[in-house]
Amino acid sequence: MTTVDVGAEQRSSFGTLAHGLKVAPEFRKGLRTTLLLALLSTAGRVVVPLAVQQTIDHGLSKTTPDLPLVRLACGLALLAVVVTAVANFFMNVRLYRTTEDGLLALRSRAFRRVHDLSVLHQAAERRGSLVSRVTGDVDTISTFMQFGGLLIVVSVAQVVLASALMMWWSWQLTLAVYVCMLPLALSLRVFQKRLQVAYSTVRTRIGELLGAISESVVGAPVIRAYGAQARTAQRIDDAVTSTREAQTRAQRISATTFCSGELTTALANSAVIGLGVLLATHGQLTVGRLIGFLFLVTLFVQPVQIATEVLNEAQNAIAGMRRVLGVLDTPTDIADPAPGLVLPEGPVSVTFDHVSFAYVPGKDVLHDVDLTLAAQTRVAVVGETGSGKTTFAKLLTRLMDPTQGRVLLSGLPLAQLSFASLRQRVVMVPQDGFLFDTTVAGNVRYGKPGASDDDIELAFTELGLLDWLETLPDGIFSAVGERGESLSVGERQLVAIARAYVADPDLLVLDEATSAVDPATEVRLARALDSLTRGRTTLTIAHRLSTAEAADEVLVVDKGIVVQRGPHASLVGTPGVYADLHASWVAQSR
Amino acid sequence: MTTPSRTPRQVIWRGLWILWLSVKEEPRIFAISAVGSALFGGMTIAQAYVFGHITGDVIEPAIKRGDATTSSLLGAALLVMGVATLKVFGILGRRLGAGIMQYRLQATYRKRVTRRYLELPLEWHQQHPTGELLSNANSDVEATWYPIAPFPFAVGVVFMLIGTLTLLFFTDPVLAIVGSVIFPAIAVLTVVYSSKMSPLMTRAQQLRGEVSTIAHESFDGALVVKTLGREQLETDRFTAKSRELRDTLVQVGRVRGLFDPIMEALPVVGVLLVLVVGTSRVGSGHLDSATLVRVAYLFTLLAFPVRAIGWVLNELPRSVVGYDRVLRVLEAEGSQVFGTATADASGPVALDTRDVSFAYGEDQVLHSVSFDVAPGRTVAVVGPTGSGKSTLASLLVRLVDPLSGVVEYDGTDVSAFAPGQLATVAALAPQTTFLFDDTVRGNVTLGADISDEQVWAALRVAQAEGFVAALPKSLDTVVGERGTTLSGGQRQRLALARAVARNPRLLVLDDATSSVDPSVEQRILAGLRGSATASTVVVVAYRRATISLADEVVFVDEGRLVDRGSHEELRERCAGYRDLVTAYERAEAERIAEHAGDEKETVR
Q1: Domain check: are A368 and A324 in the same one?
Q2: B502-512 pLDDT per residue, tens
Q3: What is the ipTM of this complex?
Q4: In this structure, are residues A216 and B117 in contact, taking their beta carbons and an 8 Å threshold?
Q5: Which of A99, A372, A380, B320 has its CA 20 to 30 Å from the CA of residue B544?
Q6: Does residue A499 fall inside a structural domain?
Q7: A146-165 tens-digit pLDDT
């Protein structure tokens, strides 16, 4: 199994961005034009201070107001506003299109990659986090790019433009404004760190809250059966309360930051008034410019006030990007060979060539398995839980590669077979007969996408399951519910077998595929599969030994070693692991 | 999932009603934040007045004189700082108040919704997908109270607007007309904006959910996807839905691109109008330049807050949808009705089941099932896959109530017991195991007063003592979703220990050892036989060893009780039962016969 911690690699923030642009070139399409439009779209914001300054200095400076001049100035300003608005429109449209195209590509590629990683089926508990790589993480990036990210670009442009105008009017006052802003700018980092801690606490608490709520929903039967309502309610209440406290705390820090921005602006305004009047009385500044300055200072407020929040958003987005790219950067441990070999038509034989497998180095789960199973035989693999039976099936279907040795199908190395050929000819039915949230027919068709309703009906008939099908409300059109949960565990397994059956493989691997089915149905199913599997190779893993009794050959696995091999009739008479297993089975089932 | 369909106008009214509800729920906090917001609004207007005052009374005279007095400058600075300080208090009151209000409402409704989850019967749970219930308690509650964040702000802004326009009329009627055109225009535009935007945002949110559902399902079924080689099919399915999301968001960008610039340009146009109109008013002697500066500045200051009204309106549709969903949980009918009977008898229960029927919607799964179990006896319920056994097991411990018929313990209808009483009498070990995110001890006791010795004894019976003792922290090891990973068989044994630990007077085992190895199961059954003397036991089973534990067998098929009696009796007279329990033997016998036939043929 891969031990790669998906997305663990740490790149710097800029490194991550650069890498993201490389992985999804869609992001770069027309990026420069979009940025240019963004710059242009801030131009409208300095129009007002400029118009105010012109009006005061030139329009109202004489005893009679110069109306035509004011009209001209305001008319030009209006023109600038219109140009700005148009630029703004195109910038938005382009921004959304490019970012969403890039994210779509990223999302789709990451999704595919996750399916190619064996971590997905090896470590079920990691699934939730993998889902968030292609959903929440991408959504975070999307939101940031269209709001926070845009705000950063626009704010920077706004501050630069305002500063340029201020410098032109008075370098002394500009300096004063910057000095007033300095303490806040320097402390932003501190605020942002505190806010980041607070927000991450909120996220942790919400995670715990969701866990507690999910227990009350998923564990509903147990809670009722054991009267554990009060205890569950208490756990939820605690989680709800600590979530609320964390949220309130984060809100307090955010509000404080916002207010310090407000006070800083007032400070800057006072400085501008004080220093400005002194400069004006010495003839170094016009009244209009002084007033214009006060209008310009407001352009500094918003960027400063939102800076901490946006920096947080940016960090979250970069972290999200890092996680998504982490998925794409993780090499697939079980890769589709290119160009792969194609398994020749006809029955499939299986060879294990000194195969060992270990999850942890040095601890073999399977040890030096060396055997050949002839084509068209029915093989049963038996052994206690933890003996390595399932590992056997996973190696055979190339869900994992051996640590040592190799597996061959019809003499061809498994690792060199193309996935397309392999998956078409070799099908495994796992114990957990997972069903998709659609109808019985929809699930069976998953095994053979072109299958007609009649084909599906026929499959159930051939498997001797028509009786069961008739107990369903809508036959093959009955909905199976989320994960198939409208059906009983045993019924799900029946659908899973039908699904594998329509796929018509040449090598069928059944891993405890009927463990929850009643004995009569199981025997019937076994017999049906039996007559139908003549001509194909079947490998069945079961802890019910009825399968072994019916098999052509039995492999007995004990502590990772194939200890016995042969037909049931000869093994059962020989003292050994199989005889013991069988005795225990007979004691239980007769 | 059906939600009442409403016209946009109805949505707004409903949304406003939800806002009113929030005020009723948290009147004090709302008052604080509204006062804060009003203070903010007042100080914003004051700020413009201070600017006008400073322009006219400080800056202009000083420049005319060519000399500024330190005191007037200091006074001006103090005035600016003073107003800003008051404004900050307003902001703090408004923002903190709004935050506290929003989070409190979220907390309150989360508690109410989850409390309802615990009260509603299991049938209700079975009719609602897990994902839906999770989002009801989480994102729907959140969405309901989203508009609360900008709500006090918007309330303050409304007062600020009224104040501004009133003052403007007293200052200069002509400028007031400019104001009463521009500000309502911004407000109206915000509403139009939100009415265009909110369906798109709702759609985007819904699509995000659908994208996530596909990812969840696809990754959950990874083994099936992989073993059938359907990765590309799944990727295509996921990409198609993601593309819908992309298309919707691109549309969002278009609407935003259209409205955002207008929203931004409107106040600027307002200021420019003020300058042009104001200059001519100055010319005609109706206005002085200081007042012009004040009005222009006021327009600049107001441009942003006016949008708060739009933020609230923007969130209303989402809030209405969220509240509808939350309400469906809060108003869901069908709590189990409890009586007042207490369960203070001791010793094994006399179980009586009379004419019990049950249906999942239209699909009737049990038809008039009757049987009784004498105290201390063990009964096995046997039947084919899908015959209704698990449903019967859940009826016996009143996880669900029958459509008709009764279940009685010692002659008392189970529905007559007071809440919590049944759990002291009966315990069910279900087919699928659920472990809480808790320690081994917590999972076994589930909060009941059970000593460690008793826990260990139960673990011993369930054959779980060995692996629990080997866990890093023994009884204190956290298991469940975020804890140590246990195998299916180990989980099942813990669930069994949970049932055994409370020495129930009625023990119901629903195929509770299906994931356990035969040899381990044998030991578990031996342990139960030794310890369950004080219990009445009902066991759902296929395996002969489990059946042999029973004094009597009840055979069900297609939801009907077909026959009952000892294993031998049923085997004699009940064909369905015989088919089921002797399936393996017959299969073997047939094989041997076939084999013999083959041999005869070869001999011949």
Answers
A1: no
A2: 888 898 988 88
A3: 0.84
A4: yes
A5: A380
A6: no
A7: 888 888 888 888 888 889 99
